[in-house]
Amino acid sequence: TRLEQISHVDILAIQRLIETMFKAPLFLPLFSLLPSPAATSGRLVSVVLYIALDILSADCLYEIASSGVAVVSSVYTSPRRQDGWKPVSVAAVYLLNPFTLLTCLGRPTTVFTTFFVLLSIRHASKGKPTTTAFALALAGYASLPPLLLLPPIGLLCYDQLCKGCTPPSANKDSKTAGQPTSKPTPLQFTFSFLGVFFSTTA
User: Tell me, what's the pLDDT at 14?
Assistant: First the structure.
């Protein structure tokens, strides 16, 4: 009946309103710059955007797998480090995953969250606390669950910093200027890491 159709439309409108309220405001101006999805050009642009995000996410996975952080840390090396997957295989599994392919059709905003989380882990595996905290803050701005990754990603970044620093005893014989001489203390790293993170989310 007509009343049932009106009720159904009202329910859909309420669902759309709830979904919009829980989206990050950053996405509203971003998608407003794109052409209307009702046009063919608009749908094409959105598909290209999501394909680009998937490719960038796969590139992050490739770099993370190439860094070897899963098997080598500053204090431990896995005896099975030779049995790991090749970086190309890791990226290929992500790109050929059916759920990844379906995101080009559904176009959810979780793709942005996934990309920023992988970007944060990529920079953490290289020992870059500033860009690591910045990317994770963007992921937390888009969705709340990535905030739970703040402690483990921070520990990963600190471990890579410790692995890349030279001991103080070796610095006495070093003739290279501008190189890190000793690892930062946990307190110094925590304040600098959280400072960048909270200044971005503020």
Answer: 46
In this structure, of 1-10, 61-70, 89-98, 156-165, the range with the lowest mean pLDDT score is 1-10
- Cα–Cα distances (Å) from 19 to 12, 50, 91, 144, 196, in that order, read 11, 19, 31, 15, 29
As given in the structure block, the two tokens for residue 149 are 């990754």
Contact present, 70 and 77 (Cβ < 8 Å)? no
Q: What is the rounded CA–CA span in Å between residue 111 and residue 173?
A: 49
pLDDT reported for residue 18? 43
Q: Tokens 């890190």 label which residue?
A: 180
Distance CA 56, CA 35 (A): 22
Q: From residue 165, give the alpha-carbon distance in Å to each of 55, 71, 78.
A: 32, 19, 21
Least Cα distance to 63 among 82, 37, 80, 88 occurs for 88
| Residue from 90, 46, 37 nearest 68 by CA | 90
Q: Which two tokens stand for residue 189?
A: 């790293």
**Nearest Cα residue to 138 out of 65, 30, 36, 18:** 30
pLDDT in tens, 38-67: 777 777 888 888 889 999 999 999 999 998
Give the Cα separation of 55 and 67 in Å (integer). 18
pLDDT(169) > 60: no
| Tokens standing for residue 79 | 């005896």
Tokens for 114, please give them. 């996934």
Find residue 77's DSSP bridge partners.
Answer: 72
Name the amino acid, one letter, at 90.
V
